[in-house]
Each structure stands twice: as C-alpha cells, then as structure tokens.
Amino acid sequence: MSQVDHQKIQQAVTMILEAIGEDPTREGLEDTPKRVARMYEEVFQGLNEDPKEHFKTVFGEDHEELVLVKDIPFYSMCEHHLVPFFGNVHIAYIPKGGKVTGLSKLARAVEAVTRRPQLQERITSTIAESMVETLQPGGVMVVVEAEHMCMTMRGVKKPGSKTVTSAVRGTFVENDAARAEVLSFIK
C-alpha cells in the first residue's frame, strides 16, 4: 500500500454511518469521514515500512551481554475487528560479533510492525525474526503485553484484561537462567 486513498475511505465511512442509521451530514459527523481518512493514513503507516530496515544501522561494540529495552508503548489495530489494541513491548537481545543496534531502532521497529492491521502474536514474532535476520544476535526475547478493545468494549467485555505473548530465539531458548533474568527485569 503505497498511497492511502482518502476518497475511498471517506466513502466507506459515510456508508458505515448510514448503515448504522446515522445521518453523516449532521453537524457532529459531517467531517468525520475526512478525519477518519487522515487518522487511517497515520495509524497504518507501518504498511510501508520494513522493520528490518531499522536494524541495518549497527555499531561495532565489544558488548556481548544483555541489552533490554522495556515498556516501549504501542498502539495497533486488530485485523479481525479494526479496533485498537495497545500496550507495551519489551525487547531483549544478546549482541554477537560486535553488532549492536541503536536503542531507538528497537522502538522504531516496534512502530513499523504495529502501525498496520495486525495480530499481537504476529507483532511478537515479526520483531524477533527481524532482529535475528539482520543482527544475528546470540539470543532474542520479545514480550508483548496488550489490552484488546475487541475484548474489552465488545464480545466478552472484560476491561483491563491483558494478553501476553513472547517470542524466544537463540540462547534464551536453551538457557533457563538467561530467560528468567530477562523476565525478572521486565517485572
């Protein structure tokens, strides 16, 4: 998706408003289709990004110990219901061969992956796989905690419930102590 078709989004939103019995020409709704089109362009901008691009900038650093960036906030849209889900991503990795990425690159990769119609499980594994492919670290662990509006405002209606997913690669798979260390730091 290279260009967002604002006109098509506006037509669709107008049709949705009509379909639910609303008057899209009333004062409070007359600009809603335009606002939704601009918002969708922003919240789905990750469709045009490859998270691996953010890991191409590396620094030669003699550091092969744990690096953890936790509590990276994100917002995404559930691809099943097109309603938001949001939470935090925690990313840990053990650099290998002097390949260390900038800390901001981890947050930028989260943005690239979450700003598209998405599933939490896919976010988790995509970030981990992108790091493995580009940085070739000794290990990667990604933990995502999120609240899904499709569970809190509709359906089962359980506000405050959190879903936790993890992707574990490399040394974190075999080394229970290393995995436990990351989880203790996250908490």
From TrEMBL:
Metabolic or biological pathway: Cofactor biosynthesis; 7,8-dihydroneopterin triphosphate biosynthesis; 7,8-dihydroneopterin triphosphate from GTP: step 1/1
Gene Ontology CC entries for this record: cytoplasm
Enzyme class, first EC level, given as a word: hydrolase
GO annotation terms (biological process): one-carbon metabolic process; tetrahydrobiopterin biosynthetic process; tetrahydrofolate biosynthetic process
Zinc listed as a keyword: yes
Catalytic activity reported: GTP + H2O = 7,8-dihydroneopterin 3'-triphosphate + formate + H(+)
Family assignment from sequence similarity: Belongs to the GTP cyclohydrolase I family.
Official protein name in the record: GTP cyclohydrolase 1
Gene that this polypeptide is encoded by: folE
